[in-house]
Amino acid sequence: MSYTFTILSPTDTPLFTHDFGTSRSGGDGIPRFTSTERSLIPFILHSALDIVEEVQWGPSTSAGSAPMYLKHIDKYQNNFISCWITGGNVRFLLLTRPRDEALGLTGGGGGSGQKGSLAGGRAGMAGSGLLYSPTNPATEEAVKNFFVDVYESWLKTIMNPFFNVGNGDVVKSPVFRARVAAAAKKYL
Amino acid sequence: MKQWLLSVGGGGEGCMCRRPESPARTQNLHGAPLEPLMTPMQHGTPRPPSYPSDMEASMMLPKQRASTASSLSSLPYRRSNSSLHKLFESTLSLSGSRPSSGTATPTPSSVLPSSTLSPGSRQNGTGTPSSLPPGVSDEYRTLIQRAFVPHVAVLADDASEALIRGKGLEGGLLQLLRPFGETVPGKITIRDSIGASKSHADFGIRFVDPLGLAARSHATQADTATRNSQEARVSTSSMSERRTGGDVAVIEDLVERHLQYSEYNSHGMAAEYAVQTEQSEPSSSPFYTLYLRRLLSGLPLATHETFAHPVASVIAVSSRNPNPTEEFRRLYSRQREGDLRLPQWVDNDHLRYYVLVHEEETGDIVKANQIYEQMKRHFGLNCHLLRLKSQQCISSDDDSVRLPTSQAVVPQMERNVATWNEQVLSRRRGISGRFMSLSKRWTPFGSSRSSSPAIGSSNSNYDPLQGFYRPDAPEALMRKLADYSFMLRDFKLALSTYDILRTDFNNDKAWRHYAGAAEMSALSALLSTAPQSTKTRAESIDGWIEAASYSYTDRQRSAAPYYALRTLALSLELLRLRSPAAADDAARWASRILEVGLVGPVGHALFTERVSACYAVRTGLGTLHFGSRRRKAAFWAVMAAESWFRLDKALQAEKCVDLALRFYGVRSENAVSQLGGVINAIPFPAMQAFIDELRQEILAMRLRFRGVDGAEEEGGHGSDVGSATLEVEQSVTETETETLDRSPRAHRKSLIGAVAPGDPLGLAGEGGRNDHFE
């Protein structure tokens, strides 16, 4: 599986982007996007913001509290997007591109249809054990842990008095990048 | 000047494919008075294929086009193109747009390009229930309603066919009648199942030749006829193609030809395309409208739906015939049992309408009247005397179609609906019907449910080997009832009937029938004016669409991608019109079309554009536009631009890029330079870079096209084109300096390479697959 993690400012500017692969089940942590997918990713992430806003401002699903972790919110073809939103309206987006085998694409395609996501696209594969499913509790939990760790590092970064997040400063800190990578390695 | 101006051009909804190589023929039909056996070649001096001066006057051409056409025809290179232009224009415009004033002679609909612009004018309270969002036109709903109209088979004897061919209408009586059926003038009042009357001003019927007889018989006669063989060949080929429908590849081909034409004639025709888009909905492309219309034209004769089955048939005999009554009888029996019979799954007991064709010049009207009286005695009221004259028509010709439609066809359909409703449907719906269907399923021998229904199990009316129901089986009658009420726009009855049919077909494992019923359930639910909650929509309609598209393609051995495409395309349009909340679903179905690969490259680009349009409908709430799909619309517009670019369609690509920039909130560079404003960039640097690159390449491509025919164009364009050229040149030099060492097309990153996997028909991949590991 390949991932792209992006932090977006409230004005939709990307502040930080990190690509990585899975480290689970013998993965080497190297992303495997094709060049096509790579140029598509900014567009997918950007268009997912429509859905983020809708979920963010729409009727709350968890009574009373407004969760920061919005879970899986959008997909385009085989790219699944999860979101975490901070108090300052900074969006963390994680794009997941499962391997083709994990989507059941190599073994004869098809699969029983399932209601599509908010965004539409091919109906997701029904989650039978091996297949990737963004709403699988284990997947959700792993992504959540990742986001929590990144959020902690993010808070520490923006507490830096020389870092002006409101101005759209891009995160350059190598420490932050290392921490994101560590969290990715740990959970994803 | 009154003429029989029956246009070949705008006439047939079913004109699938019009060959541009017959300019002379078109001109004959539009221009010169039609005299028997006159061909354009018999003029003393060969006429140049531009418009004669009297033509221009009678055709009411808009000023701008007239000047374009004349300037074009003054150029030697363009000479053939002015008539070509005409042809393209005529296929593009909506047919049946002639003014519906009572006795007016129909002008060729092709001269009214504005028809596509004002489709809603014919609307009379049957529109979409919820008020439409601003900027969204009801165009497609009208289009869909007008696609499912009663079909009337036309059968004429040899004498009358020859007579009409003598007047220059190669298609015979069918071609003569066809344009009149597109919109029956005046209001047609229809009583629905509960007895409420509703009148529709845009009702139409479609004259068809279900067996393709006209083309066939004409081909055999072509040798003996006294006209040049070239012409005969052309018209025959166009004729036979016209009858076929349901072939996606042909539609692609046609639209591609239009696109190509607009691409290379960017100052003449394309100006018009541009005008059309401005006035109709800004996000809908005229090519998409064209695509959809061709998709719906010429519904094929199929086992699982009865829309194309004739509701009535016209039997015509010429008054020259020595014994017309006998000829009527002969044709009737041939059609009923003989060689002219339709396939056995078509119900053959439909209404027959007898027409006596009389020509004023040669025939004796007294004698014709006598025969007509005699006919009335023999055949009852369903008779008509059609009087033709070479230059003008005697009877008010609109009535020729209106009277039969309002007095015969519609009442007949109403009667049928009522009868079947009473005899078949209510019996099936009542207690005993339910019991019967249960007992059918649970036979004491226990065979019907578990085993496959293969070997004609006696308790099912479905014939799985040949794949149809006998026309007198209750299921077939119910389908017919549902289709009739759908055509008569009683969507409520249609929906309830399709509901029952779905379960029946499902039990019989008649998958294509099942898919058809599901498709029509969804369409009638979406077309009905009753309000629907989001919940019912999500629960039922989505399910039906899903079931239909699945059963049409994956579930059976012989996939029917045409029907699946029709299901998805129509539902997406209707959903889009429903409410902004449904736009997400609409976009989902549109992207399903792309992913399943139901369309070829042109369709792919068009439907990508359509996804963008679907998202664009959703504008969001309040001042902050929460829940809008602006970014998604922009994303899909970029994708569409990329698709067009790959198809070498610079104009379309540029339009899409501009649209995308508008959605992104970035004004295009032209506008900025005029207004002196600041370009606010797209926040994502990678996206900005990609779009900039795409724009430049599109401009380069336009310049390349301009280079192809640039030499002839000096006189043609106005100041705006000139400035555009300048701009193109500038940016091209930029591109070239930037990409000195690499060819721009080979290495540019592409969005389309990511073709959706799971593409059973293998149509979607448009050469983008190979660069996965670039």
From TrEMBL, chain A:
It holds the Pfam family Sedlin_N. InterPro entries: Longin-like_dom_sf, Sedlin. One of its GO terms (biological process) is endoplasmic reticulum to Golgi vesicle-mediated transport. GO terms for cellular component: cytoplasm. SUPFAM superfamilies: SNARE-like (SSF64356). This is Sedlin. It comes from Sporormia fimetaria CBS 119925.
UniProtKB/TrEMBL annotation, chain B:
Residues 9-76, 93-137, 219-241, 712-774 are annotated as: Disordered. GO terms for cellular component: TRAPPIII protein complex. Residues 93-121, 725-734 have a biased composition (Low complexity). Pfam families: TRAPPC-Trs85 (PF12739). It comes from the Eukaryota. Signal peptide: none annotated. Residues 65-76, 219-239 have a biased composition (Polar residues). This is Uncharacterized protein. It comes from Sporormia fimetaria CBS 119925.
